[in-house]
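Fold it.
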Amino acid sequence: MKKKSQGQGSTGSSQEKPLAILFAASEAAPYAKTGGLGEVVGDLPRYLHAMGHDVRVVLPRYYSIDPDRYGLKLLPGTLVVPMGIIGEMYCGVWEGRLPKSEVPVYFLEHQGLYGRDGIYGVDNVGFMDNDNRYVFLSRAALELPKFLCWQPDILHAHDWHTAAVPVFLNTSYRNDPLVGNAASILTIHNMQYQGNFYPGLMEVLDIGWEYFTFLGLEKDDQVNLLKGGIYHATLLNTVSRGYAREIQTPLYGWGLEGVLQERTADLYGILNGVDYDEWNPATDQYLPATYTADDLSGKLACKRALQRRFGLPELDVPLFGIVSRMVPQKGTDLLAEAIHNMIRLDLQVVVVGNGEPWAHFFFGGMAHRHPDKVGCYIGYDNALAHLVEAGSDFFLMPSAFEPCGLNQMYSLAYGTPPVVRATGGLDDSVENFDESALTGDGFKFWTRSAAALYDTVGWATWTFYNNPQGLAALRKNGMAKRFTWEESACKYDALYREALRRRRGAE
């Protein structure tokens, strides 16, 4: 069989039989979401289901997930989950549906593990028992098919939280009559978080200490769940082709680059899609005025509304927006360093997000000291995020690394050229502006420095004032671009079928 390049593959044949696919994840929008992981698990199954696949999702019932609000029903019976030295643990199972679909979602009810505020922790401090919480989720994902009397073809795990799924599948469940023949996919959404825990976790996993080796789950004398998943998954993917290449280098591999290099032939990159029903400036219910690529008058109305929202002067100056977690990964430190020089230019900046406390104080202070230049909102507000995308002239994403990124895709759809550091999915999805050819849809910089960010903001500012034809081309080019979940789902279909061929042999 001819090997496909990373992220490529057939769209899958309509003649091939539908697959039974179980997503195991710690997040799924709208129930629980901290970033792109939740978006993918909330969207991709719907599009796979539309292709004819039997897709189901399992995740914890965090106590922020209200059964009444989402119309969940408690299934009869109790799910028994073996937890090694801890013994058997038990949970109830709630069933719901992903919004706008018939995709079943199963929520694991366990008060001791999930009955608390926060998903992973509180105030940026992780829960002390996150090891048991997510080993339980991984093991429950393999027991759930028995509970449902349903046989999956594919077990699709996401990040370290469910990376033990492929490990279990290749060890304790290899000869299981219901799931043992299933193939596993591990999607890496962020290499930085790996699930490192004390060696004694091997007794909870209960797969045998022979797997606690350099060529298994051991890293720096700890259990590394992501490493185990990388070794054991049938196939691996991440959420852009660029990031698939980057994580095989010391700069982005976070100590696991060698493991990924060993499996480079099994590592794919598939860019996430956008829900254009939600992110469409022509129909966006959150905007004071809608607009299209052919009639941008509504965009100016959105800009004025955004300026008023933050008390900024309603001037015809370039307005730069950012909606982001305030952490170094997102380039918050670069923006903090560059913003003093940026505001010396004739422009405005709007910052929306939350994260590290220092950033809250810093950007809040900037808005207080420079009310005519800087606006700041600490927190996340979905309606405001839509307004920032529509009302800004440019969108800032100075990320240190970005596996995929979604805001740059939203920005393109809203005619808001993104200013991005060329890394991962940002590099894959944004084309640098060519002033002579009037091609491209954004502005890129490569060096991770405040100076590079400032220079690129300066380039965008110059374009705003001096090259109206170029700015119009940037907006038009971006709004013509599409990153559809239909296309991504076809690539996942091909990935699943290749994984089955690998697992079961040529059929």
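The chain has a mean pLDDT of 95.
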